[in-house]
């Protein structure tokens, strides 16, 4: 029996330590996802709570077709989308973006020292740039490039195709490159 299968069995048996283990492993990441989507700390706290309540309520029906982390992120994402729908009408990312978006300022960042990329100011600039992306692009970027989910897992969490996931990730990366080009320009000059 795999570690995940054992964990799911422990959750189904209502072992408090199992829920604590899952909560500690995933609550911060779910919170970051929710803050990124909702831009509201209190709403994000509510998403974390609701996600784990749904885990407790639905664990008996969990079939294990996806990993527990993928399932939790899917629940959290759906909770975020539900909160947004209740707050305002949604607009499709495809309605907001041009099919042929290309950045005006496209430079290579290979020469930017890691110490520059990883300093607090640069991290703040990157966080602002990610937050300024259209939500659908920012969410894909966060799940793939920050949280490390695979394309297939990200697609499953967001309930979109893998090809749509790849397109959104590509667009997000291009837009981030455009938004951050001016900030990193002094280190990219040859």
Tell me about this structure.
This protein is mostly helical and 190 residues long. The chain has two domains: 3-87, Rna Polymerase Sigma Factor, Chain: A, CATH 1.10.1740.10; 93-188, Winged helix-like DNA-binding domain superfamily/Winged helix DNA-binding domain (Arc Repressor Mutant, subunit A). Helix content is 73%, strand content 0%. The chain has helices spanning 3-12, 16-38, 41-58, 68-87, 93-96, 114-117, 120-132, 135-146, 151-158, 162-188. The longest helix is centred in the last third of the chain and has 27 residues, at 162-188. The model has no long low-confidence stretch (mean pLDDT 83).
Write the layout of secondary structure elements.
Blueprint: H1 3-12, H2 16-38, H3 41-58, H4 68-87, H5 93-96, H6 114-117, H7 120-132, H8 135-146, H9 151-158, H10 162-188
Helix pairs in contact: 1-2, 2-3, 2-4, 3-4, 4-9, 7-10, 8-10, 9-10
């Amino acid at each position: 029996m795999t570690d995940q299968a054992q964990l799911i069995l422990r959750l189904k048996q209502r072992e408090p330590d199992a829920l604590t283990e899952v909560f500690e492993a995933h609550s911060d990441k779910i919170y970051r996802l929710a803050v990124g989507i909702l831009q509201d700390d209190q709403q994000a706290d509510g998403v974390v709570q609701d996600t784990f309540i749904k885990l407790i309520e639905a664990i008996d029906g969990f079939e294990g077709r996806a990993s527990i982390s993928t399932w939790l992120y899917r629940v959290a994402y759906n909770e975020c989308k539900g909160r947004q729908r209740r707050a305002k009408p949604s607009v499709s990312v495809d309605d907001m973006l041009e099919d042929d978006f290309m950045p005006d300022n496209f430079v290579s960042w290979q020469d930017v020292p890691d110490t520059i990329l990883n300093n607090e100011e640069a991290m703040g600039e990157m966080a602002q740039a990610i937050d300024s992306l259209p939500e659908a692009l920012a969410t894909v970027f966060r799940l793939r490039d920050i949280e490390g989910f695979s394309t297939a897992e990200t697609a499953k969490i967001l309930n979109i195709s893998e090809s749509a996931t790849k397109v959104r990730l590509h667009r997000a990366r291009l837009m981030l490159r455009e938004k951050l080009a001016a900030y990193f320009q002094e280190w990219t000059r040859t």
